[in-house]
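Colleagues,

For the teaching module next term, I've prepared a clean inverse folding example: a structure given as tokens, and then the sequence designed for it. I'd like students to try predicting residues themselves before seeing the answer, so please don't circulate the second half yet.
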């Protein structure tokens, strides 16, 4: 039996067609027709206006912060319950992350904790909002607060391409949005990222900075520090092929979530990761939490799955609990401040896990996974 993965790449053949085109025309370069077209297609798919294709989601967050003027000593608010890549670029710029807890309804940035963070730090340079596991954050509340304080939002939509909120794509609410095409994301280019914005000049500046910030002069002249962050034309070909199958991937991810939901409906101790009723999630990863006192732990389930060659994963460990970020200020949903307090993020981390969410899972694979989870509760 083949290993069952958490979320592995699913290729269709169209990717190779665009890659072949790049080879046939010798556009094996960090610029070229696939890059330009992939940007246009992403701008169109998300409805955001403009897009810049970059080497990774992390690079897109880094350039996004630079474009928002984040510098040494600035404060940037960021969701604590996320992957470290949401937070690292703040430190690249020697700015100071202030970590914001999740709320339990969507597992995303808590508007209550955000309000309290603004009381102590009235002038952050930016707020990074993550749409965790594809579930849209409470953008109405978050945007109201950020607009009132006139602070721009950078949306880390790395996990939520295809998710919508009030029918509008996540990643297009903030001044800047970021998507990732890493290997396990809903669509992949093997590695890559995209920055989107309604501001054409901002996106154009991202293209300049990502190609070493060369001035418009015939000789090599530089007035700013640049980066080598552009997406290659070969990689963009993979992305164009994948984007053709985006809605299909989303539908399959949703089906997996619904299969798990139905299969665990009779187990009181299991909750699925939450959806946002104001939105439509891409269901990138299906997750569960186990009620305290159920006698079953996430590690027990992960071990039982691994014994059958099935991959699963812990919930992201919150940034305020990470050794490297522990010294930064943290605002919890329930009112506490500092790294030692009870937090919603820590509770989700302690009680949760990500189930295999690979769209190549067959119904038979799903039955196998489900029966292993159920057997931990003594159920068939
Ligand atoms: C994957 C991911 C990123 C980073 O994207 P890369 O393309 O891997 O650099 C950033 N934030 C979140 C929440 C992610 O899941």
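(Answer key — instructors only)
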């Amino acid at each position: 039996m083949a290993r069952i993965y958490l979320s592995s790449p699913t290729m269709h053949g169209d990717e190779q067609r665009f890659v072949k085109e790049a080879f046939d025309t010798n556009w094996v370069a960090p610029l070229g027709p696939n890059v330009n077209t992939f940007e246009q297609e992403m701008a169109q798919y998300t409805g955001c206006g403009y897009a810049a294709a970059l080497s990774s989601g992390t690079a897109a967050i880094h350039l996004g912060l630079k474009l928002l003027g984040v510098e040494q000593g600035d404060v940037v608010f960021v969701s604590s319950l996320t992957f470290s890549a949401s937070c690292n670029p703040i430190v690249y710029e020697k700015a100071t992350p202030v970590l914001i807890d999740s709320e339990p309804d969507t597992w995303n940035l808590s508007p209550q904790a955000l309000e309290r963070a603004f009381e102590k730090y009235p002038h952050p340079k930016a707020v990074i909002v993550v749409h965790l596991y594809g579930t849209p954050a409470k953008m109405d509340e978050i945007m109201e607060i950020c607009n009132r304080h006139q602070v721009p939002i950078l949306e880390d939509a790395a996990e939520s391409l295809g998710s919508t909120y009030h029918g509008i794509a996540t990643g297009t609410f903030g001044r800047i949005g970021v998507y990732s095409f890493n290997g396990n994301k809903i669509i992949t280019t093997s590695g890559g990222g995209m920055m989107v914005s309604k501001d054409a000049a901002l996106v154009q500046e991202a293209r300049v900075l990502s190609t070493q910030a060369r001035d418009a002069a015939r000789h090599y002249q530089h007035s700013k520090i640049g980066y080598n962050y552009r997406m290659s034309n070969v990689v963009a070909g993979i992305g164009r092929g994948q984007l053709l199958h985006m809605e299909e991937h989303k539908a399959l991810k949703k089906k997996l979530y619904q299969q798990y939901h139905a299969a665990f409906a009779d187990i009181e101790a299991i909750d699925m990761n939450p959806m946002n009723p104001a939105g439509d999630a891409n269901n990138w990863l299906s997750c569960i939490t186990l009620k305290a006192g159920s006698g079953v732990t996430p590690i027990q389930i992960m071990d039982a799955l691994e014994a059958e060659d099935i991959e699963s994963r812990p919930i992201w460990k919150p940034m305020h609990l990470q050794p490297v970020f522990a010294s930064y200020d943290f605002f919890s949903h329930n009112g506490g401040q500092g790294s030692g307090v009870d937090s919603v993020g820590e509770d989700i981390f302690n009680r949760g896990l990500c189930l295999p969410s690979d769209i190549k899972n067959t119904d038979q694979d799903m039955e196998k996974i489900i029966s292993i989870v159920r057997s931990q509760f003594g159920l068939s």
